[in-house]
What does this fold into?
Amino acid sequence: MKFYKSSFISNILVFAVGLLFIIIPTALTGSNMNSIYSLYPDLFLCFIFATTFNIPRITNLYSILVLLLFSDILHMKPIGLFTMLVLASFIVIQRYSKHIEKLSFLIHYLIFFIVISCVQLLNIFLHQLFFMPKLSLLTVLNQTIFTLICYPLFDIPYKLITANNK
It folds into this structure.
């Protein structure tokens, strides 16, 4: 496993940017984040997966674990459930990172769509299975759609940077 081999500077940078993307949605809204009317994308997931798809060597499992747990606490979600689902998908993507890194934007977008859809469906299923408070389907659908809309804002700059470096 190569989850611990990223440099200290990149760990700090990823942690700081990730923390920023977790806190921004809560700071900009005065309403409850789980309400139907709060339409916000999950920028942190966009950042994690865009970085993992394009530059997998700077992502660190432990910093993402801490940030996801902090996100669960801050957004008042069941602690560890969403974290477990995202980390499982992160580990699978890390395993195939050499192949995924060379793919085009459209394939990255398709993989991101599949991963986010599976994570959200499993999240809803596990809420039902363990009798947790039910998630609003409309809220989850809105968040997923807005997250998918915002993903190109994270992936395209990585593609442009790698194109300029060649």
